[in-house]
Every structure is written in C-alpha cells, then in structure tokens.
Design a protein that fits this description.
The complex is a heterodimer of chains A (326) and B (364). Chain A is of the alpha/beta class. Chain A has two domains: 13-236, Rossmann fold; 244-323, Alpha-Beta Plaits, CATH 3.30.70. Chain A has helices at 11-16, 60-67, 89-95, 111-121, 126-139, 155-166, 185-200, 212-216, 236-240, 253-262, 287-299, 313-324; strands at 22-31, 34-44, 49-53, 75-80, 96-99, 173-177, 204-209, 221-226, 229-235, 244-250, 267-271, 278-284, 304-309. In chain A, strands 5-6-7-3-8-9 form a six-stranded mixed β-sheet, sandwiched between helices. In chain A, strands 11-12-10-13 form a four-stranded antiparallel β-sheet, with helices on one face. A three-stranded antiparallel β-sheet of chain A has the order 2-1-4, covered by helices on one side. In chain A, β8 and β9 (229-235) form a beta hairpin. In chain A, α4 crosses α5. Chain A starts with 10 loop residues before the first helix and ends with a helix. Mean pLDDT of chain A is 87; it is low at 1-17. Chain B has 364 residues and is mainly α. Chain B has two domains: 18-207 and 331-349, no CATH class; 211-276 and 286-315, no CATH class. In chain B, the strands form three sheets. In chain B, strands 1-4 form a two-stranded antiparallel sheet. In chain B, strands 2-3 form a two-stranded antiparallel sheet. A two-stranded antiparallel sheet of chain B has the order 5-6. In chain B, β5 (310-311) and β6 (314-315) form a beta hairpin. In chain B, α5 (115-135) packs across α7, α7 (155-179) packs antiparallel against α10 (265-272) and α10 (265-272) packs across α11 (289-302). Chain B is elongated, with a radius of gyration of 27 Å. Classes of the chains: A alpha/beta (326), B mainly alpha (364). At the A-B interface, α1, α2, α3 and α4 of A face α1 and α4 of B. The structure holds adenosine-5'-diphosphate (ADP) and magnesium ion. Magnesium ion binds next to α2 of chain A.
C-alpha cells in the first residue's frame, strides 16, 4: 500500500510510509564481560501487539534499547519501518516512541509542559504541540493533573504520563518497557484498552513484561527470551492449540479420582483437610479435548465447581520452556 | 485478526531546526532552575554578602581621596569572578549527570535532538544562570558609579571578560558533566580544573621561579647632591645615575615565566582592562583589586629591567619597555581550548546509539 502524501520536500515522508514493523536478526550485545543479549531474532508486525516475555535479567530492556536506537548491537541487523537505527538513528527516532521502564521526568515541570517540550524536540510547531499535548493528556486521562508539577504524580500517573510522552510524535512503532508494573487493576485495564486501540490503528506495538496474565488479553504474538536468547516466537492462536494444564475443582475428590483413573487420565490431586472437596490438575492437548472432558464429567454426575486452565496461555508456554531447560 | 487496519496518518515529518533545538533545551533548563525556591534564597544571600563587603569598604576608604568608586567597582567584579568560579562549576556539573541519574537523558536522546544541540543548550542555560550573579550586583555597580571616579574605558573590558570567564567555567562544567557518570565525580573534576586555572597557575608560576633565576651585573644608584638634600617636595626617585662598579647579584627573569599566569581568570579579567595613564604630577588613585593584579602582572612581565634599577651600568628607566604585550589573549585561548576540548569529548560521549558504556552505567 503506497501512502505517500505529497507535501513540499517530502522525501523523508515517503521513506517512513513503508509500514513494515520491526525485524531484527541475530542480535548480540554485551557489556564488558556480561552478555546481556546473546542471540535474539525478533519480529513485530504493524497492527499487532507483540509481547516480549522473559524473566528478570533476560535482556528485554537491552533489546528494546537497541530497537530504540539508543544502544549499538555488537552483532546483528535491525530494521524499523525499513530504517536501520544504527546508521540512521534520527530517521528511526522520528517514527519511534519509547517508554523506558524507569519513570524519570522533569519533576518541576507540569505534565503539559513535559509533553509540549518533547513535542518541540520533535520539531512540532508550538500551536500543534499544545493541541497534541491536550489530546494525549485526555487519552491517558490526566487532564485534571495537566497543570500540576510531575513531582506529585503517583506511580501510576507518572506511568501514564510516560506513555503519553512516548506517543507525542505519533510514532508508527511503539516500544513499551514494562508499562504495567505498579499499576492498579483499573489502570491495567485502561492500559490494555489503550494499547489495543493503538495497535488497531496500525501501529506496531512491542510490550515487554513478566506479568503474563495481562499480556494474554492484549497480545497477538509473543516472543519468549531467556538468558539473552530467543527461545520461542508464537502467535496467541498457536498457543491455543498447545498442551495446557487444567485445574478441576470438585465437591468430592475421591469420586473424581475414580472417574479419571477409569479413563486413564493422569492427574495430580489435592484434598481439603476437613471435607471431601479437592481438586485435580490434568494436562489436555487442546481446547476441544478440554470441552469433551468437562461434558463427560458433568454427564458422569461429578459435582464440578470449577474447570479452568491452570495458567494463562503465555504463562503455559513460559512454564513449558522453563521445564524444558534443565 | 481482522481488525480494520486504518491507514496510518502520515504527517509531513517535522524537522528539528538547529537553533530551535538549542532553544528548547535552554528553556527546559531555565524553567527548572527558576522553579527552585532555593535558587532565589541563594541569590538574596549572595546580594547581601556582596553589599555588606562593598558597603563597609566604601565606609572605610571613603575619606581617603579619589578612587573609592573605582575600588568598589573592582571589588564587585572580583567578588563575582571569585564566587562565579566557586558556584558555576557546581551549577553546571550536574546538568547532564543529573539527567542521567534521573533517567531523562535517554528520553532527550531518543528525540530528534543532537548531542551538540543538547550540550549547547545546557551550556547556554548554565551561563545565563551564572550571569544572574552579576545581574543582581548591578545596584552595587551603579552605587560605585555615583562616586564619579570610575575609569570608564576599563568598564567594558572588566565586565566583558568577567562574562566570558563565566562562560568558560560553565563550558568546563557542562563538558565534564557529559563525560562523567556521576554528579559527585563531575563536580569534583570541574572544581579541580577550575582550581588548576585559579591556583595551579600561581603555583606553577611560583615553582618556575628557580628556573628563571639568573645572575646579573648590577651597580649602585647614585643621586645628585641637590636631589638628596632638597626637601621632600622635590624629591624625585627616578632622578639617579648608575655607578660604574658592577657586582654580581641574583635576580629573577620573570619576563620569561609570567605567561604561566595567563590562564588565571583574575589575570585575564584584570589584564584585559586598560589602566588609566597618569598625567605628570598627578597622584595615583586608590587602586582596586583588579588594578592591583594588572600592575603586578605588568611589572612581572617587565622582569629584571623592573627589579634591578641599574643593570650593566645602565639605568632601567631607559630600558623599561613602553608597554608589555597583553597576556589575556593567551589566557582566554588556553581556557577556551580546555572548555572546547571537554565539550567536544562530551559530545562524543552523548552520541547514540551508544557503543561502549562505562562499567556500571545503564542508558535506562
Ligand atoms: N549497562 C550495563 N552494564 C552491565 N550489565 C548490564 C547493563 N545493562 C544490562 N546489563 C546486564 O544484562 C542483563 C540483561 O539486562 P536487562 O536487559 O536489563 O534485562 P531485563 O530487562 O530483561 O530484566 C542483566 O544481567 C544485566 O545485569
Ligand atoms: Mg528491564
């Protein structure tokens, strides 16, 4: 899709119009002796939310810094919207929005001043900057605090301001480093909705986290990294077809055990101290299999109180990867 | 996934102009400074101290003849320079390390701003802030002018060089700040560099004295009979002749090592201002601190010719150079090189994507 807009001297516009998202190949980066990123392949598609998942210290922040044109990889290639951030950082920055995991801000400035200052640093004219700041403050629902110094912001408010700041230049690529940490449940839902909207408007969104449950509901694809290496890339649709653990809670666990053993389904059981209640954990190959088992349980007159996946989709992959590593 | 992918709205890419980038950083810095209340208290304290010192000086010397205004004026200049040297490094040293610690440096680096624009904006802001210290002393300068005895040709030189010295010290501070990883370290190094200019030059000058020690052939001064016996009113210390008996005497050829003082900020400011030329028979005015430094430097530049009244049987008044060559261009040149070198190195350090990072530092 060619979407070049004719405007005076618009060679750079044509360059950014190729909406190709992010692709990075065999990236490596070390700090002295510490190898932070050993070998990472990463792709993120426009219009999708790509989750970057890995334990603490696995190299998520380092990878995002390289994508954000702040850190030079020792090895490997990066392309953001067809631009190489190493050789052409300024062009890359024009299409990038980056939200760091540290929430530093100019504390004596108000939210509005912070946004207009950053807008000015992107060369946005003064009147446009004011409009943009107002739009963004509304987007992250900080209108009421717009003219309060950022010093008094709570963590969640600072986080929303930081997100708004990353959006100032209306970036095609949005890199969010642990944006949900420290947010209350309500703010998380808001963030999820907002991130979804941004992706639906065609932006490439990368979001790093180790809180997997919240990613389940907004991510379209996930890249798992561990110790600086890509260990798996998958879409959520793929994750739906993998073997998952389910927890079945019942009023009488002995009857459930007899039922499952008769069917040759392996399970681990747990029983309450003072009642026959309890639960079993089973592994099932697909969602269809899960639905079939539930139906049989109900028909078999087992009093089921809950029947649910033990963990979120991404968590499941994450845990299976952990198991896989000795 | 069949979410309707809306066409991304392509804006004509805004380019960041060079000056407008500098202006934005400048505004950002100044805005943060003027918001801090401590800053105003500091300026008020500053004004009070200088006003006290200058006022007391005026009281003490007011009755002693011409030159009170000039003395007060030079005192204010010396004070602003002295405290400027003490305060400007502290003010400018955290301008980048502070952002680094705060996590805001990476945010700036991720915009279209270039390292050069960032440094220039921060430097300008630090400079303008330090000029605040000069600006609050304007009432005192005006007071000094009411005495009507200021030597006006020296005013632009003194003030202009003072402003330039503050710019250089701020440049050193900002440059070091870009190079250092921690504020404390940056402050320390800036102070060391400024001390190197202020005190190091004096120490180097003192230590080099042994190197310029020479043996000269001197002879006695002889005054004519009538000059010796006349009353004090017609005594002319310069009306002597030199004896013919030469003897060897050690002397210091300070004309060879005075240049070591060139980079001293006080010497630069004092040396750049013209001194009043005394008409014959006119009493010298009270001499202020800057005038004093200027005269000392000039006589040091004259070297042996100035300290030995009779050299090789020749009267020194006949050999004393008319005007010594000014030292301040060399001084400003050396200081400018130091500041510019630090700023250029700092710019390289701020360039992203970053290659090597100093151990123990993160970008974010
Ligand atoms: N600037 C640095 N200097 C030295 N080691 C670093 C630096 N940045 C990151 N590391 C190390 O690299 C590894 C990956 O860090 P990081 O990318 O921050 O992980 P994550 O964001 O996934 O928690 C960690 O072991 C960390 O200690
Ligand atoms: Mg991290």
């Amino acid at each position: 899709m060619e979407s070049t807009v004719s405007s005076p001297g618009s060679t750079t516009v044509a360059q950014t119009a190729q909406n190709t998202g992010i692709s990075a190949n065999s990236l490596a980066r070390s700090f002295g002796h510490v190898v932070a990123v050993e070998n990472i392949d990463f792709r993120a598609e426009p219009g999708k939310v790509t989750a970057l998942i890995g334990p603490n210290g696995s190299g998520k922040t380092t990878l995002l810094l390289m994508l954000a044109s702040l850190l030079k990889p020792n090895h490997g290639t990066i392309s953001v919207q067809g631009i190489d951030p190493v050789s052409n950082p300024r062009a890359a920055r024009a299409v990038l929005g980056w939200m760091p995991d540290t929430l530093g801000m100019w504390e004596s400035l108000t939210g509005r001043e912070i946004l207009t200052t950053v807008a000015a640093l992107y060369g946005i004219a003064k009147s446009d900057a004011a409009t943009r700041a107002q739009e963004l403050l509304e987007l992250v629902s900080l209108e009421e605090l717009a003219d309060t110094p950022a010093r008094v912001f709570s963590r969640g408010q600072a986080q929303r301001l930081s997100l708004a700041r990353a959006l100032v230049n209306n970036p095609a690529i949005l890199l969010l480093d642990e944006p949900a940490s420290g947010l209350d449940p309500g703010a998380r839902v808001q963030l999820r909705v907002l991130v979804r909207q941004l992706a639906d408007s065609g932006k490439t969104v990368v979001i790093s986290s180790h809180v997997l449950a919240e990613l389940d509901e907004m991510a379209d694809a996930a890249v798992f990294i561990s110790k600086g290496k890509t260990v798996r890339s998958q879409t959520l649709a793929e994750a739906g077809t993998q073997i998952r653990g389910y927890t079945i809670s019942v009023l009488d666990v002995t009857r459930l055990r007899e039922f499952l053993e008769a069917k040759n389904i392996a399970a681990t059981y747990a029983q309450d101290f003072d009642s026959p209640r309890g639960s079993a954990k089973v592994k099932l190959a697909s969602e269809t299999e899960a639905a079939a088992l539930l139906k049989e349980l109900v028909l078999g007159n087992i009093a089921v109180t809950t029947f649910a996946p033990s963990a979120g989709l991404l968590e499941e992959t994450y845990l299976s990867l952990e198991e896989g590593t000795p | 996934m069949s979410a309707p992918v809306r066409e991304r709205q392509v804006q004509p890419r805004a380019e960041l102009g060079y000056l407008s980038g500098i202006r934005t950083i400048f505004k950002l810095e100044i805005l943060q400074r003027v918001r801090s209340r401590g800053w105003y208290m500091f300026l008020a304290m500053w004004f009070t101290v200088i006003a006290l010192v200058v006022g007391l000086t005026a009281l003490n010397v007011g009755a002693q003849g011409r030159g009170t205004g000039q003395l007060m004026f030079e005192l204010v200049v010396a004070f602003v320079l002295f405290f400027g040297l003490l305060i400007a490094p502290a003010l400018s040293s955290n301008s980048i390390t502070g952002d680094r610690a705060n996590g805001t440096l990476a945010i700036l680096q991720n915009t279209l701003i270039t390292p050069g624009q960032l440094l220039l904006g921060k430097w300008l802001a630090a400079w303008v802030t330090s000029l605040g210290f000069l600006i609050v002393t304007i009432p005192l300068l005006l007071w000094a002018m009411t005495y009507g005895d200021i030597y006006f040709p020296a005013v632009p030189g003194l003030l202009g060089m003072l402003v330039l010295e503050l710019a250089i010290v701020c440049g050193i501070g900002v440059g070091v700040s870009a190079l250092a990883n921690r504020t404390l370290f940056a402050v320390l190094i800036s102070y060391l560099l400024v001390a190197m200019l202020g005190l190091g030059t004096l120490i180097a000058f003192g230590l080099s004295m042994e190197l310029v020690r020479v043996d000269v052939k001197a002879s006695n001064q002889e005054w004519s009979e009538e000059n010796m016996n006349g009353d004090d009113a017609i005594w002319d210390p310069n009306d002597y002749t030199c004896g013919t008996t030469l003897y060897t005497q050690p002397a210091y050829a300070t004309d060879r090592n005075t240049w070591l003082l060139a980079a001293n900020p006080f010497v630069v400011v004092a040396d750049a201002a013209p001194r009043p030329v005394l008409k014959p028979g006119q009493d010298a005015d009270l001499i202020g601190p800057m005038g004093g430094i200027s005269e000392m430097v000039r006589s040091s530049q004259a070297g042996i010719a100035n300290t030995i009244p009779c050299l090789n049987g020749i009267k020194n008044l006949d050999t004393l150079p008319e005007k010594s060559s000014p030292l301040w261009p060399l001084g400003i040149g050396l200081q400018g090189l130091l500041a510019a070198g630090l700023l250029v190195a700092g710019r390289a350090k701020l360039r992203t994507p970053a290659g090597r990072l100093a151990t123990g530092t993160r970008i974010a």
